[in-house]
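Example record

The entry below shows one chain as it appears in the dataset: sequence first, then structure tokens.
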Amino acid sequence: MAIDLRKVEPLGSKSVLLEQAMRRHLGQPAKKEQASRANGAYDDMDMSDMITPDFEWLNEDKTALKNLVAQMDASIGQIAQQMRVLEERSTKTSLKVEKEQQLLFKQIKTLNGLLKRQVDVFSSMENQIAEIEMKQNNLVAQVGIGVIAGLMSAATILVTAPWMTVLMEYIR
């Protein structure tokens, strides 16, 4: 069985509050109770255990809450300012990093171009050296053939010299 506590006086003791709720729930006419309250009579409540309201604590709590809210606002403002500063710094830092990355990529591209040129130069030099070696091999072969041919002609001259002298004398 559910008891509706929404229309119960909040400053009474638990037993008084429960008793009021039970009476209302059991069917006491609400109009009669409202009329008696309007006249100032609280027949159904025992006023001896009621606490006199002291709202001093409420004002203190209100002041403390206002101070707390002001401190929180100030803290949030400081955090927001720090976040803006951090965003600015991170933006500047990211721009610097991006510029340095671009410079680094340009340097890498330049180095790659230079390395390619060096490889091309070395390949060209290697081809030229290979051609020179081939020419030198041909030259050595040609010199060798020349020397052998010269020796053979010298030997032929030596062998035929006596005969040639005789032939020359005979022709004269």
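Notes for this example: The mean pLDDT is 78. The chain is about 80% helix and 0% strand.
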